[in-house]
């Protein structure tokens, strides 16, 4: 039956083909108003951000019933597509018949009046039907595809890194423990410790916080790879920027140094933004009008700019020289806070900025040590309005240096046996970065809470739907 | 630095452009042999299934060192691309210089001799460098992209269903429990029960077994959607067909009945196979030669066939009429076993077969009840060599019938409050199915164990790497 119904997107995009013809559409009533003899329905069929106006009148047998249909009822409409030059919408349908597929109810929570975003989170099963969320989630879908397309067009291999991990050595944050043990009767060893050998995987298992180490395995076979999958943080963080479950993109490239890495990140960000601007113009216009007035200007500027590249040491100098008072004072060796990052990208450069070569003590063990013995080949990409959006590094490819760093940071060498072997059997210069998928969706839509760019967000005390 | 190096894929695909020119490549030694004055290296750079032959001789300063390099050492080669008509490979590089990027070691486990697949699983950090696994994982990547492209080209929205779920009502199998509680000191309520209110999400939380119910939410807003993400089963199953973590594709379509659903599944399967045949010809030829002799013939046949459609009742009749002795006897009402499924698709039809309208008692609560009150609008797609590859249904869109089924099956009505509300506010005919991603990779590659089509498989007692 689906093919009987032309999608509203096609009626807009190829209207010349259909004007004057009888068409069938199926969708949900967004708004409806009628007088004694005729009525108007704004119909959304889910295929397109915009609605199709349905004009109907008393010639319909069921005129009265249709007039009274509550919002969100689903209907099947047959009628003529009519050009309406000069009107808000370019076309409308003059209905010859309207069949009710599913009624709705006046208790339907998404009435025309504006709701707060907080309230809409409590009806996550219905909010995709609102303008805002239909726009957000369609952009999310298109951006996800843009990312795949970007990498696949460049011969990258999509590497599925595991979600369940038997190691807790990814070192990026607190983890969720996974178990099938009976929590009322946890098996113990003779000396009273938990007997994980009886758990499902025969040892402790957690949800991954990063696919990077696995991506390195794949990169050292395929040269260029990327992951794109869910990652997890068991942090009791209630900010609008943190979720317990989010998606990450982690490319890893071989025979490639930090310069290549920055170039890749810059190309990717520009590509995704351009792709979304081109493929979701209606949604992006909506965000620009109703969510964030300067959005399109900001995004277009980014696409056409050259990202700045400075070292951490230079960044610290600039921050100190600026004379600006910060909540967290700046000195060489400190981690940059969001206030510092935003000052650099917004006030000093008004442009995206790569900051590179951070002090080793504030970065991970796997980042390549510089000649100075003090800094590592890390990079963070800072963007106006957000701060850090990408974090990456050139990886330490020297087995001896890596081993020394593992010991220096009191990590357990045995946990890294295979990671070290990658350096033993044909190691190579390689680099990679991580992009939080939700971060770039927030950036492109102007939505300021991560709970509003994930269809069913998971945060502390919240795993509804 | 990466751009200095031309990828081997380009040297094959656009060889006319490079023959006679000096090129640089970077990659890993797959094999190496040399005599006193010259030598040959088979170099793989990860960009392409095939190797590039490097010819080098004593004119190199470091001829001796290069001659002795162990397998899997990484090198940077500069030399002339030379046409070698009539040889096994169309081109080779005559090296002017070879720089060692990373040495290897004679302990390298992937020596030329053939290893068992079982052994290779224990070196999952190195097996992507073997012919078999480089082929499998590249096909996996290309197939994943084909799936996204198929749906995105058809205006489907990619819906990210949650991985962590607060409900255990998806009803598709045993689940992994997720917790951040201290297992040595589990908080208890006054009456001695586990106090889940103190756990991270304030209640029991598990890993998802299916994104379908969430996909229905999204479909009833966007008309056509698909999920593509990891799903989990905490089943102690040691077969070659089951993993604890695997990826699923779950499309959901609205204003669409079971006929539409079958058409979509058929189109999708054919599209993915065609796309992989077209975009990974070298890998597919390898599988056909070394893994499964009849593979290409079988896949081409599928692409060009019309899938058969029969009801469960008809299938049972045919199985009984066949006179074939099965381990599990067949009668109306029984669940079809793999032996039955394979008999239908291989012996009776020698073609993919949709079996529809199963007895309600062997299918899930959400499947649409038929007029007969005995069967539901389910569909399974059976394919030769595998059996079931897709399972789906038209969904029960009638609120009252759905509620009755929930009660009949002793499920807890309150767990389904939002699922029921989807039927209250503009319900519509809709359908969907699930495709196990690894199943179709196994089908397309001829690999017979699911552990060999996932880079880092998770199975009972195994979460290495």
From TrEMBL, chains A, B:
<keyword id="KW-0436">Ligase</keyword>
<protein>
    <recommendedName>
        <fullName>Asparagine--tRNA ligase</fullName>
        <ecNumber>6.1.1.22</ecNumber>
    </recommendedName>
</protein>
<dbReference type="InterPro" id="IPR045864">
    <property type="entry name" value="aa-tRNA-synth_II/BPL/LPL"/>
</dbReference>
<dbReference type="InterPro" id="IPR004365">
    <property type="entry name" value="NA-bd_OB_tRNA"/>
</dbReference>
<dbReference type="GO" id="GO:0016740">
    <property type="term" value="F:transferase activity"/>
</dbReference>
<dbReference type="InterPro" id="IPR006195">
    <property type="entry name" value="aa-tRNA-synth_II"/>
</dbReference>
<feature type="domain" description="Aminoacyl-transfer RNA synthetases class-II family profile">
    <location>
        <begin position="137"/>
        <end position="455"/>
    </location>
</feature>
<dbReference type="GO" id="GO:0005524">
    <property type="term" value="F:ATP binding"/>
</dbReference>
<dbReference type="InterPro" id="IPR004522">
    <property type="entry name" value="Asn-tRNA-ligase"/>
</dbReference>
<dbReference type="InterPro" id="IPR004364">
    <property type="entry name" value="Aa-tRNA-synt_II"/>
</dbReference>
<dbReference type="InterPro" id="IPR002312">
    <property type="entry name" value="Asp/Asn-tRNA-synth_IIb"/>
</dbReference>
<dbReference type="Pfam" id="PF00152">
    <property type="entry name" value="tRNA-synt_2"/>
</dbReference>
<keyword id="KW-0963">Cytoplasm</keyword>
<dbReference type="GO" id="GO:0004816">
    <property type="term" value="F:asparagine-tRNA ligase activity"/>
</dbReference>
<dbReference type="InterPro" id="IPR012340">
    <property type="entry name" value="NA-bd_OB-fold"/>
</dbReference>
<dbReference type="GO" id="GO:0003676">
    <property type="term" value="F:nucleic acid binding"/>
</dbReference>
<keyword id="KW-0547">Nucleotide-binding</keyword>
<keyword id="KW-0648">Protein biosynthesis</keyword>
<comment type="subunit">
    <text>Homodimer.</text>
</comment>
<keyword id="KW-0030">Aminoacyl-tRNA synthetase</keyword>
<keyword id="KW-0067">ATP-binding</keyword>
<dbReference type="GO" id="GO:0140096">
    <property type="term" value="F:catalytic activity, acting on a protein"/>
</dbReference>
<comment type="similarity">
    <text>Belongs to the class-II aminoacyl-tRNA synthetase family.</text>
</comment>
<dbReference type="GO" id="GO:0005737">
    <property type="term" value="C:cytoplasm"/>
</dbReference>
<dbReference type="Pfam" id="PF01336">
    <property type="entry name" value="tRNA_anti-codon"/>
</dbReference>
<dbReference type="GO" id="GO:0006421">
    <property type="term" value="P:asparaginyl-tRNA aminoacylation"/>
</dbReference>
